[in-house]
Specification:
441 residues, TIM Barrel, 2 domains, 7-stranded mixed sheet, 13 helices, 20 strands, globular
């Protein structure tokens, strides 16, 4: 099916930015041409709009989508480990097939409505492991959002569940759907035995998919690695064969100079999650030292990459007044390149002939001039998710006029509310997790 987006301003690429005035011809799920729309082609007027490549969320936890406003009656967590024990490691044990599906639909909806077309998700549901990634993939396909999925393997719930998580990744990586790919998921070094880490590395090697793992988000991760193995986290991962150019390392807040050097030498990607780091008070990642392969994620704080990139910029700018305003675009561009590599679509993240038509149309008619030289200023101080009008993924309209195009949006929200209350009731019966890493008092 062909469609022409006419009259708009087109952001061809995020970095270096390229802005043109051109009509877009979409055909067969791809950008067929910029300009030269054949007579008789169906059109959508984009006058006064900015058309951009769909944003990519480089690290998220969609299972957290039902947690907004979740009741909490335990003593307040005093540190990062207690946040896990008293909040997230209780929520993930409350999940079943229905709540996984509801979380995926709600989280995917909110991503699309904020102009995010690809989610790199890290899933956990210890009491519903088998087939959980299929549930996510099916829900995302129903919405029309592109996804890269993995199961969070960990020993914190016992060796049987660790093995089940490894096998869920292995099984899922053997399947392939048009809008879904997989990675070998793992929680973090401090909740993984040598045998479990080796199992994850084996899956990654067999599938040539790469690892997706939390790294040194909190000092507890480093303390555990040193107490159990006499090595820092990145050194442990490197020894195990987990560190390569396909790996996604989330956070990396507490890595030292040697670890930074190893990450850069191996070409691993670091997913920076500024708002989550602030919320959990874990510290500040040294994003400048980590190099050009730093990408942006939300760690489950929604799917809005406008908000995330702006917060990440201001947080980094607070430490470095010489940080250029183009920095967020310089980080969002490689985030899209991670997805392009995994999907084997080199042009994903760009608007040019032959590229997958993953686009967001923003009803943003700026009150000041917009061009390549000042695009970053508009991104930081003008653009937001409230301007999202239309979203296309693989050439299919999935958001039209700010509403979901493939799914009953009101019905989805109503069903999510019912499911959230059911999960919250179950959560009340689940005690704090007792797992504690080595080296932590």
């Amino acid at each position: 099916m062909s469609l022409a987006l006419v009259g708009g301003t087109v952001l061809v690429a995020l970095h270096p930015p390229a802005v043109v005035r051109a009509d877009l011809l979409i055909d067969g799920g791809r950008i067929a041409a910029l300009g030269g729309v054949p007579t008789g082609t169906p059109t959508r007027d984009c006058s006064g709009c900015l058309i951009i490549p769909g944003n990519v969320n480089g690290h998220t936890h969609i299972y957290s989508a039902l947690a907004r406003g979740m009741p909490y009656r335990l003593d307040p967590p005093a540190n990062f480990l207690q946040i896990l024990q008293r909040v997230w490691w209780r929520l993930d044990r409350a999940l079943d097939e229905e709540s996984i599906r509801a979380s995926a639909l709600l989280g995917g909806m909110e991503a699309l409505l904020s102009g995010t077309t690809t989610l790199i998700d890290h899933h956990a549901s210890p009491n519903a492991i088998d087939g959980s990634l299929d549930i996510l993939a099916d829900a995302f396909a129903r919405l029309g959002v592109r996804s890269i999925l993995c199961y969070e393997v960990t020993d914190r719930d016992g060796p049987e569940r660790a093995h089940a998580g490894i096998e869920e990744n292995r099984r899922f990586l053997r399947t392939q759907q048009p809008l879904t790919r997989g990675l070998a998921g793992a929680h973090a070094s401090f909740t993984m035995s040598p045998e479990t880490l080796a199992g994850c590395v084996e899956v990654a090697r067999q599938s040539r998919s790469g690892m997706h793992i939390h790294v040194a988000e909190d000092l507890a991760d480093e303390a555990d690695a040193q107490a159990r193995f006499g090595r820092r986290v990145v050194q442990r991962l490197e020894d195990a064969g987990a560190l390569d150019e396909r790996a996604i390392l989330a956070h990396c807040v507490h890595v030292d100079e040697g670890e930074i050097a190893a990450i850069r030498e191996r070409g691993a990607t670091v997913a920076h999650n500024a708002r989550s780091n602030m919320n959990n008070a874990v510290g500040r990642a040294r994003v400048g030292a980590l190099g050009e392969r730093v990408v942006l994620g939300t760690d489950g704080i929604g799917g809005d990459m406008f908000a995330e990139s702006q917060a990440a910029y201001w947080r980094a700018r607070e430490d470095d007044v010489f940080l250029t305003i183009a920095w967020p675009l310089e980080r969002l561009a490689p985030t899209a390149r991670v997805a392009s590599r995994i999907f084997e679509e080199p042009q994903l993240g760009r608007i040019e002939a032959g590229a997958p038509a993953d686009l967001t149309v923003l009803a943003y008619d700026p009150p000041t001039p917009l061009h390549e030289g000042n695009l970053a200023g508009h991104w930081i101080f003008g653009l937001s998710a409230r301007y999202v009008r239309d979203v296309l993924v693989a050439g299919e309209m999935v958001v039209t006029g700010g509403r979901l195009a493939k799914v009953d949006q009101d019905g989805l929200i109503a069903e999510a509310a019912v499911e959230a209350e059911r999960v919250w009731r179950r959560l009340e019966e689940i005690p704090p997790h007792t797992f504690t890493p080595a080296g932590v008092a």
